[in-house]
Amino acid sequence: MRVEIERVNSKDEEKAVIKAVEITDEISGAVELLEGGNKSFAVSYEDNAYILKTEAVYYIESVDKKTFVYTKERCYDTKYRLYELETMLSGYFMRCSKSMIINLKKVRSVKSQMSGRIEATLLNDEVVLISRGYVKEVKRRLGL
Question: What is the pTM of this model?
Answer without folding.
Answer: 0.74
